[in-house]
Every structure is written in structure tokens, then in C-alpha cells.
Amino acid sequence: MKALTAALAMTLVCAAALEADPPPPRAPRARLQPAWLVPSTAEEQGMDSVLLAAAVEFLRGQRDLYNIHSLSVVRHGCLVADVSFWPSQPGELHHVASITKVVTSALVGIAIDKGYVTGVDARVLGFFPDRPIANPSEWKDAMTVEHLLTMTSGLGGVLDYESEAAAMEASPDWLQFCLDLPMTAEPGTVWRYSNPSTFLLSAIITQVTGLSEHDFARQHLFAPLRISSSIWWPESPQGITDGSGSLMLKPHDLAGFGQLFLQQGMWRGRQVISGEWVTESTSLHASDFQCYLWGRYPDFDRFYYGGGAKGQRLVVAAGDDLVVVLTGGGFFHEDIEAIYREALRSFIFPAVLSDQPLPEDPIAQAELTAAIDRAASPGREPLPVPPPPPIAAAIDGQPFLVDPNPLEILTVTVTFPTAEEARLRITASGYWTYDDDFEWAAGLDGIERFAPGRLGILAAGTGEWLNQTTLLLDVDELGNLELRRLTLVFLDGGQRVSITLEDPYPWDPDPPLVFTGRLQP
Fold this sequence. Notes:
Elements: H1 2-17, E1 38-39, H2 49-61, E2 66-75, E3 78-84, E4 94-95, H3 100-113, H4 138-142, H5 145-149, H6 161-170, H7 174-180, H8 195-209, H9 213-222, E5 248-249, H10 251-262, E6 266-267, E7 270-271, H11 275-281, E8 295-297, E9 300-308, E10 312-317, E11 322-331, H12 336-348, H13 362-375, H14 390-395, E12 399-402, E13 409-418, E14 421-428, E15 438-443, E16 449-452, E17 458-465, E18 470-476, E19 483-491, E20 496-502, E21 513-519
Parallel strand pairs: 1-3
Antiparallel strand pairs: 2-3, 2-11, 4-5, 6-7, 8-9, 9-10, 10-11, 12-13, 12-21, 13-14, 14-15, 16-17, 17-18, 18-19, 19-20, 20-21
Helix pairs in contact: 2-12, 2-13, 3-8, 7-8
């Protein structure tokens, strides 16, 4: 009885945390979790620790197919499972890819709630009266905000999704590119996944509020949720936020966004988004699975979700009072979705046993803790490191001036802090590096080393000398989602270097980039 009373008290604590002021910081984990997210045992929240442990082991066992980074399970507003899969580290910013689209959908709802937009039936072209429009037609005139939200605008589609998105980002004016696209279907009749359609929603927010979508989000969404991460969100040359992707959030902050929807838009006593919008935007409108940029599965309708490339998933199950966040980066198999759905269907949802606390089960809880600890460790011993070749001493700390290349890399410098570690410093001036310098690190003993990579987002790497002149580095960019393989061949006694940069995906890889450099005078 005492255990049941204590568990019920913990449930009330989790609910109260969403209403009260944040507690004072607690070491050492307070830095890693937002104030609303109170840790709890699974049983205190009516869940089975054994099944959650099985979910962790299942996902860890899929690492050859799905490069998963994290799993967060939140029940009744409490954090019942928080997993960082090695080499991912807790509390780091993470690219959420097209989960960004459901954030854009929410911001459209806020703009409607505040009267900036009259409603989803507003005509898209009416927001841009001063723009010349190519390929005019009655269909284009009839296109509404709702058509953009359901991806049934009929706009574009001459190119495939990837090519169309790349063409938009390569154009000097993304908005004009989107408005000028031809219509290939009558609005409301054909569903087609489209980044330009979602970008137009961001442009509409900017047009009616005078703020970029990013700034509008800071004021009306991120601030109420107390999301204070250093959020990066790219924009067009005209300063319009890319509403279709590339938002950076911490996994716990993403869970908070899901919790907001689970609570019908209410946060700490404040109605951040109207309950009507939450209901409308997560209900089916087009096809068998499309809501307002949220998705549903017709054969698994226990939840709605936001999905992003390479394993990003935000799952909201209102009937179970459950939020699940998965992040990943890079992949080795086309059907990541099947893996994460299996984790939900076979383990996480079956773990939901009751709306009331269950009796404490120390053995089951220890099993879950052990599974989380296994996931967070390399799971292997360091390898013996042979003596470095003589070329290592010759090039250690020497900057190489890189010849002109598509990534606009200017210099590369390799250092060896110890015999077990190599570090690569890159200076550059282009978009690929976000006009900033960064480092990658690699353990030469088979255990990842960490360094602040592009955008300051943590990256992990391993490496080895393949022969007397060739250094191989494998880098997982973690929150930046990419896997990189660099092969550096040092020539002429270390006076020159040839660098091959490629991704190691076994299917549909990008072509390798090869560029050269010479010791800086």
C-alpha cells in the first residue's frame, strides 16, 4: 500500500511540474532535461519496465540497419525511459529533419488563433499580391492554406521530391520559385510530398506577421515551452525560414512539443495553441494517413506522428497519455520505419498496462537500467594501437591549403594528441560548414572520440592507418545526421595530401568528393 501511495504521489508530481514554476537546478542531470520533465520509474506511470527494456534491446540489436541515437518515453508527463545509444550523448542538439513540418503546422495554427490568418480556406496567392506569378491558372488561384497543410496543393511535381527541393534551395528566391511552379493537379485531389508547399506556409507567416517563422516560433511557441536551446534553422536568401526541415532541437524539447499537443495545446495554465487546432490538425483530411502535416497509419491508428529522414520520429498517443521521441543519424537500410513501428507495436505500447500506478518491481527496473546502460556504452574493448608511421610526425599540426573544391574547404590540419587519437581541423567559408571552422576527432583504438563538429554539434569518430601514408577516418556527425568517411593520402613525404570524402551508406550513396592540398607556405 505504501508503494502504491508513493507511486500515485509521483504521478501527481509529474502533472504538477507542467503547471508550476521550474524547480531549482539539480546536479548533475538538471542541465540535460527541461524543468517540466520529471524522471520516474515505468511502474509509477503504469508501464512495464521489462517490455521497455526489451524495446531498448530490440533497437540496439538493429544498429546494423538503423543508426539510432536516442529514445525518450514520456508517460503522464514523466520521463520513464531515456536512452542515448552510443556514441550519441544526452542533451545534445539534434537535426529533426521533416518533423520541422509539424512545427510549421502548429505555427500556422497559432497565426490563425491570433487572427493573422483568417483560416485554412484563405487563398495562397492572396498573401502575395505584389508578386508576379508564372504559370497562372484557375487551379493555382484556388489553392488554399489547407491544401498546403495536407500536401494536396497540386503545385509542382514535374520533378521528383528530392530534385524539386534541391532546385528550390539552389534558386536565388525560394518564394518566387514556389509561386512559379506549374500546377500538375487540381488542388485537393492528389497527395504529393512537397517541401515547396511547406515553405510557402513559412512565407505566409512572414508575410502576415512581419517576422520570420523562426522569430515567430521563438515568441509564441519556444518561449512558452521554455525551449532555450541554441536553435539553428536555415532560411532563404530573403530571410524566410525553411519551414520544411532542418530545425535543431534537443530530444527532450521535442518531447515537450509532443506533450503540448497531448495536452490539447495547454502549457502551465496557458493556451499556447487552441484545442480546436490541435484536434483539427491531427485529424485525417487527405488520403488515408495525412493530417495537417502530421501523419497517421490506417493499420495502426493508436497515435499520430511527425516523421523526419534518417530515423526522426515524434509519436503522440493521446489515449495512452504517451509521447515517444526517437532520433537517428544516417542509416543502413531503406525501411527504418518498419523498425521503429516494430518497437512501438511489440514493446512500447504493450508496456502501457494501466492508467494507475503499478506495484514497484525493483528487479524489472534494474533490468531496464541495465539495458539503458548497455545501450550507452561502446560494448567493446579498445584495440591495440600499432606505432604510427613516420609520416604522422611530419604532418602533425601542419595545415594543408586545399585547392578549390565544391565544399569551399580552405585548410585541413591533422593532429595527434596521443598515439590513440587523431583530430582533423577544417576551416572553410561555404554553406557546408555554415561559414565556420570545426573539428572532427577519431579514436585509433576503435573507440569513438568526440569533438564539436559542424555548427558546434558533437561528432564522434574512429580511424586507422591503412598503410604508411593513408589515414582513414569514419565520423558519425550525430545531431547533424550524416556519416562521413575520409581517406587522407599523404604524398611527397607529407608535402601534399589527397582527400576523399564519401558517405558509407551501402545503398544510394552520394558520389565521393576528391580534392587535394599542399602544405601551407
